Amino acid sequence: MDAIITVLGLILLTLFFIFLNQNRDVDELGLPLKLIGYYTLGIFNLKINGLLIPLGFIISLFIKPAANRKIKRISSAAGLLVMLIVQLF
């Protein structure tokens, strides 16, 4: 059952990245990899004495991309959401 959930999650994540890539504002070299990077940054967290600090998401708020700012923020927020869901379950 865990394998099915993992595969389903990967399929949904791939479709999400494809959707974001198609809704870009400006053509940008290497955008799919940048979206994956922002997503990974959004997932990064730090636990101190049981307190969960979304350090990667906070860092991503200070990054000011020149192009496709909206979809990069959405990708980072999706990483934060997945991190929170994983922590709850």
Would you give an account of this structure?
- The protein is mainly α and 89 residues long.
- The protein has one domain (2-88).
- It is 70% helix and 7% strand.
- It has helices at residues 2-22, 31-43, 55-62, 69-88, and strands spanning 46-48, 51-53.
- The protein has a two-stranded antiparallel ribbon with strand order 1-2.
- β1 (46-48) and β2 form a beta hairpin.
- α2 (31-43) runs parallel beside α4 (69-88).
- The longest helix has 21 residues, at 2-22.
- The protein is flat and about 40 Å long.
- The mean pLDDT is 91.
What secondary-structure arrangement, pairings included, does this model have?
Blueprint: H1 2-22, H2 31-43, E1 46-48, E2 51-53, H3 55-62, H4 69-88
Antiparallel strand pairs: 1-2
Catalogue the unreliable spans.
Answer: none
Mean pLDDT: 91
Shape: flat
Number of strands: 2
Q: Give me the number of helical elements.
A: 4
Could you tell me the strand content as a percent range?
5-15%
Cα gyration radius (Å): 14 Å
